[in-house]
Specification:
422 residues, alpha/beta, TIM Barrel, Hypothetical protein af1432, eight-stranded mixed beta barrel, 20 helices, 8 strands, dGMP_Pdiesterase_EAL/HD-GYP, EAL_sf, Putative signal transduction protein
């Protein structure tokens, strides 16, 4: 019961949903992430119209509450800014060394804005003109093009002819071009031919050529390993034998479990010891991850995305049985198996003796694990309207996603080093 003289409770801070989308260079290496966000406030209209407040909250959340290093590592973080925040740049972090500021389309381009952008560029911020289109910007637009480091072009907003013409015109300026909303491999190849420097979009998450894909020798070996560990008849002794038959995998796994990441109180001396100490399901999960990390010709961000999905699905399954939690991890990890292996999902799953709940969730979007993957995908793609609105569930999703991002960065950092050392 509240006390009569108690001060009124402060309103709860709005839950911030944050997603990140990678921006890659021509070699599929990471430049940085665009941070996408939405506050889960009760006032839906305010959430839409008050873009300045939303941007300020995500900057505060990224830099202070969560920590920019945990969210994007050593890469750049890109955020959208309105004219008002650009002009009131004293509210932004003093150093922009790791931050790209995307100037939104439709802003009023004038001398005041140019001067603010000049100041921010001097503080180390990477200046980006977002959703760019040549219009009646006059001298201010030309000045901004001179200050900008990058220009983003929405490939879905242009036909082939206008996109090529815009690229040719922009090449008069010493800046980098980003193709955004690249959805298909064909669009990516077209933008690559046009000379774009960076790429952003869902093309990365799709196989390159599903219709003609064939498994090379390295992928056949990975599939053999996955089939062996997914076999329900594979117990501790059988899994020990499977791993020990692959000297490189044995070395990677023992280094992993004895690393500072696990900080185990004992030294694990053998694969069987690891299975007994950590559990069969946990070791299976690490072997899946290490096997896929060995696919050197696939972009690093692809496996990172799969790891984020896997960890998030596992966390969202926290109230389920331990067996279901392990299956949820597999659902997230294998949701990108076709892109990682560059082969049709049906072909791959036909070769793996997976539980029906895993197959149903990944292939058909059905069963008790499917909603977990659906929510992970919605967070990843910043499709906020697909998520439950408000309340504890929104907060749980926000924390699960950010925690999964941090976990994936740490784990991939170790797995990538292991793959390189093998």
């Amino acid at each position: 019961m509240p006390q009569p003289n108690a001060a009124p409770a402060a309103p709860a801070a709005p839950v911030m949903l944050v997603a990140r989308q990678p921006i890659l260079d021509r070699e599929q290496k990471l430049l940085g992430y665009e941070l996408l966000f939405r506050a889960q406030a009760e006032d839906r209209e305010a959430r839409i119209t008050n873009r300045d407040a939303a941007t300020a909250r995500v900057l505060l959340h990224a830099f202070v509450d969560f920590g920019i290093k945990r969210l994007v590592g050593e890469s750049l973080a890109f955020v959208n800014l309105t004219r008002n925040l650009l002009l009131n740049h004293q509210h932004l972090p003093s150093s922009g060394k790791q931050v790209g500021l995307e100037i939104l389309e439709g802003q009023k381009f004038d001398a005041e804005l140019v001067e603010a952008v000049r100041t921010l560029a001097g503080r180390g911020y990477t200046i980006v003109l977002d959703d760019f289109a040549f219009g009646d910007g006059g001298p201010a637009l030309e000045a901004l093009l001179g200050l900008a480091h990058m220009v983003k072009l929405d490939v879905l907003a242009h036909d082939a002819e206008s996109l090529a013409a815009t690229v040719q015109r922009l090449r008069r300026h010493p800046l980098k071009l980003v193709a955004e909303k690249v959805q298909t491999r064909e669009q990516y190849e077209r933008c690559l031919a046009l000379g774009f420097d960076y790429f952003q979009g869902y093309y990365l998450l799709r196989p390159e050529n599903v219709a003609e894909a064939t498994l090379g020798e390295s992928r056949i070996n990975v599939m053999r390993l996955l089939a062996a560990i997914e076999n329900p008849a594979t117990g501790p002794d059988e899994l020990d034998a499977v791993i020990r038959n692959d000297a490189v995998l044995s070395y990677k796994l023992l280094r992993l479990v004895n690393s500072a990441y696990f900080a185990l109180p004992i030294k694990v001396k053998s694969i069987l010891h690891a299975i007994v100490y950590l559990g069969l399901g946990r070791v299976r999960g690490w072997v899946r991850m290490l096997a896929l990390a060995g696919l050197e010709d696939r972009p690093a961000e692809l496996l990172k995305t799969a790891l984020v999905r896997a960890r998030m699905c596992e966390q969202l399954a926290a109230r389920m049985s331990r067996e279901r939690q392990e299956m949820a991890f597999t659902v997230g990890l294998f949701s990108l198996l076709d892109a990682l292996m560059n082969a049709p999902m049906e072909t791959l799953f036909d070769k793996l003796p997976l539980p029906e709940e895993v197959r149903a969730a990944v292939q058909r979007g059905e069963g008790p694990l499917a909603p977990l993957l659906d929510e992970a995908l919605a967070c990843e793609r910043a499709e906020w309207d697909r998520l439950a609105e408000g309340g504890a569930h929104a907060e749980r999703l926000a924390h699960a996603y950010l925690s999964a991002v941090e976990w994936a960065e740490q784990v991939y950092g170790f797995a990538g080093a292991q793959a390189a050392a093998a």
